[in-house]
Amino acid sequence: MENLENEMKRTIWERQSGMCALTGKKFEDFSDLSEADFISLKEGGSQTEDNTVMVWKLQELPKGNLHRYNFPYANFSSYSDEDKAEEIKSEIMIAVDLSNTSEDWRETRSLIKDLTTTLNSIGIPISYKNELRDLLRTALENVDKRQSEEAARNKEIWQKNYEMLKEKIVEAVEFSKTAEIFKEAREKLIAVQNEYKAHKVSHEHKNELEKLLHDAFEDLSQRQAVFHENFEMECIENYYKLKTVVANAIAKADETENFATARNTLIEAQKELKDKVLKRDQKDELFAEIRNKFDELREKFNEVRLTDEEIEANYQKVQEVVSEAVEFAENATQEQAMDARQKLIDAQGVIKEYRLPYSQKNELFAQIRKVFERINDMLAEEKEQFEAEALSNFSKMLAKIDVIIVEIENAIDFNQSAENLATVKAELRLLKLKREQRDKLFDRTRVAFNLLSKMREKYNKRRVEERTGKLDAKISNLEQKNARLLSLLEKDKEILTEQTEKLNNAENEQDKESAKQIVDIVNARIAEREESLKITTKRINDIKTEIEKIIKRENERKKARKKNKTDENKAKESKPTNAVSETGTPAEQKEAEIPVDQEKAETPVEQKEAESPAEQEKIEAPVGQKETPTAEQQVDNSNVNV
Fold first, then answer.
1. Model confidence over 164-192: pLDDT tens digits?
2. How far is residue 370 from each of residues 150, 348, 407, 437, 594, measured CA to CA in Å?
3. For 134, which DSSP code?
4. What pTM does this model have?
5. CA quadruple 24, 25, 31, 35: dihedral positive or negative?
């Protein structure tokens, strides 16, 4: 209180007999009060003798509001025992009210304890003390009773939570133990783990449930690693076995002079390849060897002239198939038009399969071509109906996609929009649509997905910036706190040096004792501030680590999205440009052309091989499990492990 008049300071100094109102430390000379401070007990009140005290600067003041009873050496001019009792009673009644309403048990108990200590230290008649002690004792009993009641309620709730969670966790763990699709097992464990985190249980039950989940995740990861290792070994073993099978089939095909025998030998080897587990590059290599041998055989046997007997036998077989297909097509009804068309196409395949002279093949193709015109006319009416339905479906789906795009632009619900787009995409594969209509709708769907990705990216970026911004603000506040602590620490060390020197140079026991008290107090405060500095610094480092993790997770999400985009682009590039739409009536398809010069037999190897089981089902096959999620990834993309 720099504005306090010297007269008032002297009055207070004389009233307190030159002693600190809190500790009783003596200030011998009024002219030297550099270590004294004058404090008003009522903030904003007038600086008068009865609401101002003189205290030692180095002594910490009591926490909370300051009252006259806190200063035993203040010697207030009019402050009776009754005044003291009433003043502390008002504080005790606040504690009593809190004991009936507050749920912060620790804070309420601490307040009652502090008031009890203060009550025992002030000088008031024993009758007042006993009355006030009874109030504090009642308040403490209220806290104990209310906390016990809450604990009983929580115990019942926590027990129900435990029973419910344990049943679900055990079910998920048992499913995980026998699951062959590791992705499903992991998703089930993650789901029940998230449900566990949303409920409270006792500490004992918490440890039990966390151990169940942790062991299940560990077991699943180990089984997945073993499965992947076994898959690798099985692929290697199958590759070398099948390489021998393919080599033997090729050698046998080279030895025979019969094209059908050689062809069947290679087809059998090809079938065996399809049934075995292999990596994609291994399977491609072996299929390529068989395909190359088919090409060699075709060139070899095309140079060999057929005998008249072979020509006649082949012609009779093919003629029988063609006649049957033509007869069925000539008598087919509107409902049978599709079946008739397919029979004619199959008959064309039989003509291609058998080796026949050009004239005979041309004759057979002509028979099919003639009846094809009738079938196409029958399908014309169906085509008109198809086009009308396709136009209606196109308009309906286009409107639905546009509505989803508007929802995405307004950021209504990204997850729901993604589900709606997936539903639309699935519907597009099933509805009757023309190829160009389907392509336009798929293009529009891709536009919606791209917009959704950009909006999600923008949302995630803003969310990360908000989170990191808040954490940066915390760091700034903590660094300011550290700066203040360092400044105070330096001042304390200066005071310690000064007081240590006084202690060493003290000429009498009283001065030594006074200096020693100061040194002890300053040392304790230095230790406390150093500990606070250490805690604050650790908190700053923890927050920085948390920021790094947030940024790292966001970068990993960006990489994953970029990889998915790259994979989608590759898939688009590899898709044949002349692929037929997945649905549609036969009338929509291109009319079959009747080959004229088709003397070369086609083999099954010329068809595109089916993808390996590993690529058909990425969940079941290790190909989709090459990148086993790390513990850190399990924790974000969901905090997987406990």
1. 888 888 988 888 888 878 888 888 889 98
2. 91, 13, 55, 32, 10
3. H
4. 0.31
5. negative
